[in-house]
Amino acid sequence: MLDPGKPSFSPKKGNPCVVMFVGLQGSGKTTTCTKYAYYHQRKGFKPALVCADTFRAGAFDQLKQNATKAKIPFYGSYLESDPVKIAVEGVERFEKENYDLIILDTSGRHKQEAALFEEMRQISEATQPDLVIFVMDSSIGQAAFDQAQAFKQSVSVGAVIVTKMDGHAKGGGALSSVAATKSPVIFTGTGEHIDEFEVFDVKPFVSRLLGMGDWSGFMNKIHEVVPADQQPEFLQKLNQKIFTLRLMYEQFQNIRNMGPISQVLSMLRGFRAELMPQGHEQESQAKIKRYMTIMDSMTDAELDSPNLKFMNESRIIRIARGSGRPVRDVLDMLEEYKRLAKICISMSNIKPHKKGDKRPVVRNNNIQQIINALPPQVLKQIGGVGGLQSLVKQLDSKDMSGLFGGMPGCNWQS
Fold first, then answer.
1. What percent of the chain has pLDDT over 90?
2. What is the mean pLDDT of residues 180-194?
């Protein structure tokens, strides 16, 4: 579903090219232009930004501020009102100065705005971009197809970037955009900062879209931030289906270095939305800190026990008093621990197929596990249980290891 059947144009160092960004107003297009430029700058390119958005007040100021922060040259005008002229002048200037990646930021528009679409066509005809990128907000849902199709009919869209993937929206509209534009998704925006920009990887994306989390992405984050001397012990415990409160505490310490908490926890299937409310990153951090404060008041035996059967009422009251938190907070923390422990153990139970047999045999309990993880509306969109079975059968054993891989013991059960 995410394969349009053709690769996207890729800029090449030393070979000047023009990339034009188009998209709906409010999709994060201007910020994405800078992220795209910054990403390629770090790859050794010589990028430059041109602001051809004269429709939105403050567009040039925003691009100027972003470009200055990223130390990327930019061009725009406060006086000229013709975006086509600005675009042509900007491209010609940076071509003369031997920049190999010239990025055009255009006005955001909706499919109903015929005048702005005509402006977009004129800019495209005047600058002859090598690639047109459609920027899509991950939260627009079913409207994505109609909007993406309107852009495709006006200019030759060659690639898609999905933004705002740090929120609760899982990006299902990306499927619609690929279908409408027949163009691949090449990057995803995962936050507001300039470096929160990732190359699109289809397997983790589909895994998170289906509500199964992104274990491989989570484990990559773990490898980045967990001290090297802790990694073997951590992975061994997970492989042995041991997940203690102390282990959760240590990972809460490390998780602060992984990036936005909501983004990291969204990789874990089963985490409650209340722990990572969209747009409330500070509240999420406060809740993690509150849980850690509660665990600070627990004994070593309580932290190192693999089960909580001994956690009686008197212990809970003692922990609440010691941490200065109400009993309800202690119960919430224990409930979150139980959920996360259950997830790790259930994923460890997914065993590999018999050696030498490359084709997976999908068992009913595995299908049921996925059904339980899927939001009802997503299950309905893929054709119910029958559609899900067909989707799973299309994935070979390597694909399934990609969905569940990255963690010892987390392989596809045959």
1. 30
2. 83
Residue at token pair 């007040």: 57
Q: Please answer whether residues 396 and 358 qualify as being in contact, where contact means their C-beta atoms are separated by less than 8 angstroms.
A: yes
pLDDT greater than 60 at residue 396? no
Q: Worst-scoring range by mean pLDDT, 42-56, 255-269, 288-302, 313-327?
A: 255-269
Tokens of 118: 């005509």
pTM here is 0.58
- What would you report as the CA-atom Rg of the chain, rounded to the nearest whole angstrom? 24
Angle (nearest 5°) at CA 32 between 93 and 79: 45
Amino acid at 57: A
Q: How far is Cα 159 from Cα 38, in angstroms, rounded to an integer?
A: 18
